[in-house]
User: Fold these one by one.
Assistant:
Number 1:
Amino acid sequence: MAMDGYKGFLGLLVSALLVGFLSVIFTLVWVLHYREGLGWDGTALEFNWHPVLMVTGFVFIQGIAIIVYRLPWTWKCSKLLMKSIHAGLHTVAAILVIISLVSVFDFHNALSIPNMYSLHSWVGLTVVILYILQLVLGVFIFLLPWAPLSLRALVMPMHVYSGLLIFGTVIAAVLMGVTEKLLFALNSSGYSKFPPEGVFTNTLGLLIVVYGALIFWIVTRPQWQRPKEPNSVLLQPNGGAREGPEGLAVNFSNVDTSDSKLNSEAAPKKRNVTVDEAGQRSTM
């Protein structure tokens, strides 16, 4: 099935992937060039894993997971496969986020720095908890074949809304964290003099904002939505409707109509065959 405005979609998709990838590269350059690198020894080198993993997992990979249903070349794939890819990308992002949180708390505890006192930490931990809760509920309700169709239909709008809300809040938390780190590392007077690190990291923040804006635009265009799949047929003894393997309601009125049509077309053929056989027998 052709997508409306395919060239526009492709241009925005390439732009989003490029900006998101640049965000990850800028984060790596920041910690490797300006912040002395990476390590896992309780020092600031261990803390540097926090921005790298957050931008890579919580921003870049989460954005890809959000728009994966919009890719037109995946529309021929089964819905179950796309659900698995969607959940898998979010799971990878969640793992990276958890590791980044461990690096922060380990660094703070090693240097006796208080935990959870800033607005960045409050917003950040809250959105991490909501993200993991969203992932777990999404797997149990939409991926595993346990939840009834009525529950899926009820939860789906909230699932979509909360996913976008979480993604937007993540971007806000990342921007707060970048600013907080620059204020600590450069102190307020140094930051105000436009040092190279400050300008470079501010550019990183702008890239993250642009990436988020592109993802929001792609995912909110109705003409780029994945087409609905045709209903699958599962027969039941009582002739009623049953939920298909991918959560689709089945309408058996079409099945009855098509069967009656086939029967009506087949009836004259049967009579002709009977007449032909009788004629052959009489001739013989």
Number 2:
Amino acid sequence: MAKDAGGWDYIWNPRTNEFLGRTAKSWGLILSFYLVFYLFLAGMFVFTMYVMLLTLDDFTPTNQDRLVTPGLMIRPRGELLELRFSPENTETWDAHAQSLDTFLEPYNDIYQAQTNDDCVPDQFFIQEDSAEVRNHPKRSCQFNRTVLEECSGLQDRSYGYQSGQPCVLIKLNRVIGMLPGKEGLSPYVTCASKKEDVNLGQLAYFPSNAAFNLMYYPYYGKRAQVNYTQPLVAVKFMNLTMNQDVAVECVVVSNTIAPGAERDKFAGRVSFKLRVSDQ
């Protein structure tokens, strides 16, 4: 094939009617092949997705890697799990109080009485399906805000921050189907200083046994159990040393939950820092 100075004969050769070295028939065969090939791949993808969706349950994961040790988390979380404030400076703790107000709004006693059941404590609230009949939506047990007493925000709108006795709420992460206790013993929370030479002083827990009662388990998932209210434990630090950084670690204790590995700082535990300043 001759090529002129501009190279245009390679793009279109009028003598052979070739475009980029191929005739129209050759280009047609190539395009037809790739069209059929990609339509086949698209069809296989759609068919595979359709078969996979048929195996999924709208309410329960078909396959889930159940955590051996669920995590703990706190409210308020602060920045990087650090709570620094001055009782005399409202601006340093007001955001924490507002965060707790918002978080606890669904726990108001009136709302709980309207949406959830008054369950029997210290036993699992198991709701089995009946053969092919799905028991949905599943009911949930009441967790009333008043159970948190001094940390409910009802008696003290500042949650203790204005008096230098901060409240921290602790929750156990949700795991579908988990039964976190046996023989009627509920998992409970205990908090301590991460440094042996630092004394946290007196701690007050609400409820007083610091337990996540068994009646809130098992959890069936947010679609199956739409009104589920996660149980909480509040810890109030009664006499923290002023102007001192305190590293706190709270852990869950249970006769069915394995202790978390040291390398996973959120497995069965949560660590955070507190500092109460006088200015």
